[in-house]
Design brief:
Elements: H1 2-7, H2 14-31, E1 35-40, H3 48-63, E2 67-72, H4 75-84, E3 91-92, E4 95-96, H5 100-124, E5 129-133, E6 140-144, E7 154-159, H6 162-169, E8 173-177, E9 179-181, E10 187-189, H7 192-202, E11 207-212, E12 230-232, H8 233-241, H9 249-261, E13 266-271, H10 277-283, E14 290-293
Parallel strand pairs: 1-2, 1-11, 2-8, 5-8, 11-13, 12-14
Antiparallel strand pairs: 3-4, 6-7, 9-10, 13-14
Helix pairs in contact: 4-5, 7-9, 8-9
Bound molecules: adenosine-5'-diphosphate and N-acetyl-L-glutamyl 5-phosphate (X2W).
N-acetyl-L-glutamyl 5-phosphate binds near residues 41, 78, 95, 96 and 192.
Length: about 300
């Protein structure tokens, strides 16, 4: 389907190269000055060559006047550090059971290692990234999710977009990790998709783009030919209630739906394993992956 076609783009002539560059112009014009929140994490973050293409795409976006904001996870890297430290990783309904020792590791890995690595890579590629977590200027405050026996897992209580806006207005690329504190200063571990959705909503972003390890939302998630290219909130909710969307895809679709209900124009779930998937989504006619919009009438 679409992804295979895209993966097989055949740039065998100058005319084709010019066509591809020229196709980008209306999208560059449409999205210049607009906010795009990109969630990067999970499996899509494991491969270092792929990481470089994601980083280059983010710098590309900033260079053509789009306002990219990166929210990152790093679940696999947390698992690997927990393993080195002899702490067992446990999940309930896709969320990490986070006791005090695990919370320390989550914070060290996400806010320290993963965040600073992404910042350094963006800056090496010619961007100007600034690394943050929810604690910086109280950009995000957390509250306990309240799920039983899951520890310091939080949800987003408030987002204060002022710091993000002032950084973006000065040409910086904010890179935000999904750790935040409550009003007592207690740190919480928040699912990174959830944080990306809430930040996109607070900024009234043009797009929320979640990079993951499937080609999008699939009717049968083992069969890439069953991709949903476009759906609206109602259809997305139905896919959750029918059990078509399951596991780690539930929080992704859920946060897309919530962000759209709060004014984000379009939410996309795209394949982070595909090189330059961000450019393909934003700057080509066909786009890639699954696009969710508020209602049929606002489909682009
Ligand atoms: N309908 C669906 N379409 C695509 N993937 C699905 C679907 N339902 C469940 N999934 C699962 O959701 C996974 C993505 O969620 P997750 O592993 O949490 O991603 P990430 O690590 O990128 O945050 C896919 O790899 C797939 O196994
Ligand atoms: C509560 C919870 O589960 N938090 C996640 C935060 C990181 C994350 O979301 O990372 P990915 O996007 O790479 O999965 C965790 O501890 O793994």
């Amino acid at each position: 389907m679409i992804n295979e076609e895209k993966a097989n783009i055949n740039i065998d002539s100058d005319a084709e190269r010019v066509r591809i560059l020229s196709e980008a112009l209306p999208y560059i014009q449409q999205f210049a000055g607009r906010t795009v929140v990109v969630k990067y994490g999970g499996a899509a973050m494991k491969d270092s060559n792929l990481k470089d293409t994601v980083i280059r795409d983010i710098v590309f976006l900033a260079c053509v006047g789009v306002r990219p904001i990166v929210v990152h996870g790093g679940g696999p890297e947390i698992n690997s550090w927990l393993n080195k430290l002899g702490i067992e990783a446990q999940f309930k309904n896709g969320l990490r059971v986070t006791d005090a020792a695990t919370m320390d590791v989550v914070e060290m890995v996400l806010v320290g290692r993963v965040n600073k690595e992404l910042v350094a890579l963006i800056n090496h590629a010619g961007g100007q990234a600034v690394g943050l977590c929810g604690k910086d200027a109280n950009l995000i405050t957390a509250r306990n999710l309240g799920a039983e026996d899951i520890g310091f897992v939080g949800e987003v209580a408030t987002v204060d977009a002022r710091l993000i806006n002032s950084l973006v207005n000065s040409g910086y690329i904010p890179v935000i990790s999904s750790v935040a504190a409550d009003e007592t200063g207690q740190a919480y571990n928040i699912n990174a998709d959830t944080v990306a959705g809430e930040i996109a909503a607070a900024l009234s972003a043009e797009k929320l783009i979640l990079l993951t390890d499937t080609s999008g939302i699939l009717e049968n998630y083992k069969d890439p030919s069953t991709l949903y290219n476009k759906l609206d909130i109602q259809q997305a909710r139905e896919l959750i209630s029918r059990g078509i969307v399951s596991g780690g895809m539930i929080p992704k679709v859920g946060c897309c739906v919530r962000s759209l209900a709060q004014g984000v124009k379009a939410a996309h779930i795209i394949d982070g394993r595909l090189p330059h998937s961000l450019l393909l989504e934003i700057f080509t006619d066909k786009g890639i992956g699954s696009m969710i919009v508020a209602s049929e009438f606002t489909r682009q």
